[in-house]
Amino acid sequence: MVGVDYGTLSGRAVVVRVRDGAELGSAVHEYAQGVISGPTPDWALQSPDDWRDVLRIAVPKAVETAGVAPSEVIGIATDFTACTILPALADGTPLSDRYPDRPHAWPKLWKHHAAQSHADRINTLAAERGEPWLPRYGGKISSEWAFAKGLQLLEEDPELYALADRWIEAADWIIWELSGVETRNVCTAGYKAIHQDGAYPSEEFLAALNPEFAGFTAKLGSELAPLGGRAGSLSAKGAEWTGLPEGIAVAVGNVDAHVTAAAADAVRPGQMVAIMGTSTCLVMNGENLAEVPGMCGVVRDGIVPGLWGYEAGQSAVGDIFAWFVDNYVPASYVADAAEAGVSVHEHLTSLAAGQAVGAHGLVALDWFGGNRSVLVDHDLSGVVVGQTLSTKPEEVYRALLESTAFGCRVIVETFEASGVPVDELVVAGGLLKNAFLMQTYADVLRKPLSVIDSDQGPALGSAIHAAVAAGAYPDIPSAAAAMGKRIADAYTPDPERAAAYDRLYAEYRVLHDHFADGAVLHRLRAIRNEASK
């Protein structure tokens, strides 16, 4: 099987053995254009050509590296960041191919937050009308999602909105490119496009937002495809790009976080999977429906058919650490890291790990990319409290690491208080490489952490879905049991450090609740935006 994972800055392909999930070969392709900026700092765009290049470059290279004949591959599946969404013509042509000079023609990346005002209007109207779908999203939908971004397109470039026959997730668009068949997967439709109980929000509701928005759902496709299903067969074009046999199974599209649950063999109720990278997405299954404040959504069949899939997340995690290193680390630290033969991140982590819990006298709010859960407000911003003239870079760095663990604890506690128990936390993603960070999470959360035993979790998860689509396994749980990889209780909490972190977490909650209404932080952002004009 071939699994292809589309991330924020690169795409990666992995070749996986169906029998046991062994990863035989992989390749990564860095996007040439990466994250494309827009008119304001809150914009984040991407290029379809970068996505196509992953199929042309990474897939053949992964197969070559694996040392298998292309004829041995029986299926391919992909996963994507979400909500990464684009306007397209009826034949799937992205509008950015036709109108490259117009920002709204380009795909809007998941972390495009410029539609916050549109999300605010959707939330206000939904609350006023008592829309039954709103509690399924913790009481607020996000500026990152399909409807907010679609309303922004309509109101800021109505001509392009009218030209867009399709408003389609990249997760579905890339499957269209591979198979020639347009599908819409139940995962992104449910979590990112407010599809609940067989329907999208009503035309009446949409018209109340803007009369021209009434027919928006016609751009979203119709019948939804189940996860693990076969979207179609690899087309001649897809075969030419990838070097794989024409006609092999192409699985229904999916989201990077959600396929990772299968890769970690963590698809049973009570297993929360934290995919930690530039951001963190938390997903888990439950047997029953519950309404969790500030969750990103709960969707029937959203992760595994037959269960309720829950999602929450943090808008920035690794991005916070990268921002600090890129902007606030003295040259002497960079030189010391180079002399030691380690990265600046590794150097700062080593220095931070030598401190006792709380020795820096700091606490930070992890809102540098806004707050996805549980406040659902992307106009919030980061806060660091307690700095003095003697505060060192490694101390601020440690406070930032800890802040993301505190933010995760808020989410876990909110789930448990809402009747959704978290029995096991399973960590995946690039930040697994930082053992100090993982131990910090175990201590802060007071829970043992299991970890995925793969460096390519989403791509492995996609390959597992491809195995189901190709008929090698009857369902996702059985494929995950055979092909998924998890190390149980890899990190366990230290009682002394956990008690010390309880004190810091109490201060974090004071700051969290004080700034939660956004009054000060929103005013500062407004001043910034006015000045930047």
TrEMBL record:
<dbReference type="GO" id="GO:0019150">
    <property type="term" value="F:D-ribulokinase activity"/>
</dbReference>
<dbReference type="GO" id="GO:0019569">
    <property type="term" value="P:L-arabinose catabolic process to D-xylulose 5-phosphate"/>
</dbReference>
<dbReference type="InterPro" id="IPR018485">
    <property type="entry name" value="FGGY_C"/>
</dbReference>
<dbReference type="InterPro" id="IPR018484">
    <property type="entry name" value="FGGY_N"/>
</dbReference>
<keyword id="KW-0119">Carbohydrate metabolism</keyword>
<keyword id="KW-0067">ATP-binding</keyword>
<dbReference type="InterPro" id="IPR000577">
    <property type="entry name" value="Carb_kinase_FGGY"/>
</dbReference>
<keyword id="KW-0054">Arabinose catabolism</keyword>
<dbReference type="Pfam" id="PF00370">
    <property type="entry name" value="FGGY_N"/>
</dbReference>
<feature type="domain" description="Carbohydrate kinase FGGY C-terminal">
    <location>
        <begin position="273"/>
        <end position="470"/>
    </location>
</feature>
<dbReference type="GO" id="GO:0005524">
    <property type="term" value="F:ATP binding"/>
</dbReference>
<keyword id="KW-0418">Kinase</keyword>
<dbReference type="GO" id="GO:0005737">
    <property type="term" value="C:cytoplasm"/>
</dbReference>
<feature type="domain" description="Carbohydrate kinase FGGY N-terminal">
    <location>
        <begin position="1"/>
        <end position="261"/>
    </location>
</feature>
<comment type="similarity">
    <text>Belongs to the ribulokinase family.</text>
</comment>
<protein>
    <recommendedName>
        <fullName>Ribulokinase</fullName>
        <ecNumber>2.7.1.16</ecNumber>
    </recommendedName>
</protein>
<keyword id="KW-0808">Transferase</keyword>
<dbReference type="InterPro" id="IPR043129">
    <property type="entry name" value="ATPase_NBD"/>
</dbReference>
<dbReference type="Pfam" id="PF02782">
    <property type="entry name" value="FGGY_C"/>
</dbReference>
<dbReference type="GO" id="GO:0008741">
    <property type="term" value="F:ribulokinase activity"/>
</dbReference>
<keyword id="KW-0547">Nucleotide-binding</keyword>
<comment type="pathway">
    <text>Carbohydrate degradation; L-arabinose degradation via L-ribulose; D-xylulose 5-phosphate from L-arabinose (bacterial route): step 2/3.</text>
</comment>
<dbReference type="InterPro" id="IPR005929">
    <property type="entry name" value="Ribulokinase"/>
</dbReference>
